[in-house]
Each structure stands twice: as structure tokens, then as C-alpha cells.
Specification:
Length: 224
């Protein structure tokens, strides 16, 4: 017969060590999950910001391209206001009934459109607004837009301030993530295609941003 073995239970020290180790492991797992979750949220915000920016640019290009569309020759359509931070274009693309036939004026929906920054929701962040003066009025096209910049070019692709000489426009947009990322500092300087600074974050700025620029030619300008 074998002698009885001593009790194989755990000592208090062993219990404490086990608890301490599992605590460390749990903390490590939690911290990994938390940082993955944070990265996931940041990436979602960046994707949203990018889609926001692309959709806004798509719409602006589509409308600005048609500036001056005037098949009857009597609507006086064109670029009405060409500012660095805003644009107002007119075109005759429909009639009073909205049937899609030009009627010689720019007084119908979507015919007189202004793009400019505004704070539509009053939260202190600028948003990209589109004002369709004969249609839906002012709408927000994209939120959290830090910069909207236009450069107008003549037929030699030289920047011009003269409305009658404009043949194309370079559009630049800077969008900002919805929330700041405390682990990030944004010290980028954003420039348009001419190399002009259009946005520079303040020191200590923690917002991620996306920049998009495009050039649109307006084939209906300068036809006469
Ligand atoms: Ca009309
Ligand atoms: Ca019209
Ligand atoms: Ca806002």
C-alpha cells in the first residue's frame, strides 16, 4: 500500500499569482480590443469623409460644367459670381413645368445655383451648401468642410478674375473627420493646384482630413 499523498490543493500564494496573471492577461486583451475598436471607428470616419467629399465634388463638377448652357441664346446664362470661396452659375436646362426643354430663361429649378460654405446646422463647423434659388433653396451637400476653393482659368489656362474670360475652374475641397483623434496631430498645409494655401490647421489640431481637387471645363462659356 502506498502512503497517502499530501493534499494537492493550491496555497494562497499560488492563488494570488494566478489571479494576478489572469488580471494582466485580461487587461492586455481588453486593451487590444479597445484599440482595435478605436482604429475601426477612425477608419469608418475616414471612409465617410472620403465619400462625402467625392459626392460633393461630383455634384459640383456636373453643375459647373453646364454653366452658360443657353440653347436659345437669350437666357444670358454663364458664371455670375466667381469668388475664391464661392461660385454662382446659371444655365437654361428646363422650362417652368420642369419638362427639360430650355425656355430662354434661368428662372427655373436647378438653373441658378450657388456653392458656398456655411454652418447649416449651427454647430460651429462649416458645411458645403448649395443654394438653388428657384428650386429647393439652400441645402447642405457635405458636412465638416474646412475649405472650398475655386481658381478660374481662361482659354490659355491662366488664372483670371474676368467673368467673360473664364473657360474652366479648378475646385479644391478639404473635409474634416467628424471627431478629433487625440492620438493624432494634423500639421498639414493644404494647397490648391496653384500652390496657394487654402487651409492650415491651428497648432495642436487633432482632426484627420481629406483633400480633393479637380478641374472642370465649361464648354458652353465663350461660345458667342
Ligand atoms: Ca422659365
Ligand atoms: Ca429655363
Ligand atoms: Ca456645421
Amino acid at each position: 500500500m502506498k502512503p497517502p499523498r499530501s493534499n494537492p490543493g493550491f496555497t494562497i500564494i499560488e492563488c494570488l499569482v494566478t489571479m494576478a496573471i489572469s488580471g494582466i492577461v485580461m487587461a492586455a486583451i481588453y486593451s487590444t480590443l479597445y484599440s482595435q475598436q478605436k482604429t475601426h471607428v477612425t477608419q469608418e470616419q475616414i471612409v465617410a469623409m472620403q465619400q462625402n467629399l467625392r459626392a460633393a465634388m461630383y455634384l459640383m463638377k456636373k453643375e459647373i460644367r453646364m454653366a452658360g448652357y443657353d440653347p436659345t441664346g437669350s437666357a444670358l446664362a454663364g458664371i455670375q459670381i466667381a469668388n475664391t470661396n464661392s461660385i454662382r452659375i446659371t444655365r437654361d436646362i428646363t422650362d417652368d413645368a420642369g419638362t427639360g426643354d430650355s425656355d430662354g430663361d434661368t428662372g427655373d429649378a436647378n438653373e441658378d445655383v450657388t456653392y458656398a460654405l456655411l454652418d447649416a446646422d449651427g454647430d460651429g463647423d462649416t458645411d458645403l451648401g448649395r443654394n438653388d434659388v428657384n428650386g429647393v433653396g439652400t441645402q447642405t451637400i457635405a458636412e465638416n468642410i474646412d475649405a472650398l476653393n475655386f481658381v478660374y482659368l481662361d482659354q490659355n489656362r491662366t488664372p483670371t478674375a474676368s467673368l467673360s474670360e473664364i473657360r474652366s475652374a479648378q475646385i479644391s475641397l478639404v473635409a474634416r473627420a467628424e471627431r478629433a483623434d487625440p492620438a493624432y496631430t494634423n500639421s498639414n498645409v493644404y494647397e490648391n493646384q496653384q500652390g496657394d494655401t487654402i487651409f492650415a490647421p491651428l497648432p495642436g489640431d487633432a482632426y484627420r482630413r481629406k483633400f480633393l481637387t479637380a478641374e472642370v471645363r465649361c464648354p458652353n462659356l465663350g461660345l458667342e
